[in-house]
Amino acid sequence: MSRDTTQLTEQQLSDLVDRFYDRIQVHPTLGPVFNAAVDDWPAHKQLLTSFWSSVALGTRSYRGNPMAQHRGHDIHAGHFDEWLALWRETADEVLDAEHAALVHEYAKRIGRSLKYGLGLQEGVRSLELPIVGG
Q: Which of 6, 16, 31, 109 is the most buried (most CB within 10 A)?
């Protein structure tokens, strides 16, 4: 696979999302959580490509509420560590080092924010506030 080191592209993000969520579906602990929540994997991957395009490229193409989407699922704090490790591994395979480091950092921040918002951050209780639009 030829890697473009000049600019991260939406196609690269799509390739990353596709490979990553193929792995998620068969992961021993993450697979059951995601498979219970996702009815249409192709549509979900498209939505997540839009999300990552908005995050990493500033496209503003994503319309959604990630926090609301994660509420009500059987998610535990350890899932975030596994998710992040698998994301890092996949990004390192799909992207050049510079772009992989970029999406690693975004994923780390997003995971930390979700853990906090869901009340899964060690030593922090959820505020249990309603989420607008969720």
A: 16
d(CA 13, CA 27): 21
Q: Around Cβ 5, how many Cβ atoms within 10 Å?
A: 10
Distance between CA atoms of residues 67 and 105, nearest Å? 18
- Say how far apart CA 30 and CA 4 lie, in whole Å: 30
For 3-52, write each residue's pLDDT tens digit. 444 699 999 999 999 999 999 999 999 999 999 999 999 999 999 999 99
Which positions ≥6 away from 93 have C-beta within 8 Å? 19
Q: Rounded distance, CA 66 to CA 27, Å?
A: 21
Is the alpha carbon torsion for 93, 3, 97, 82 positive or negative?
negative
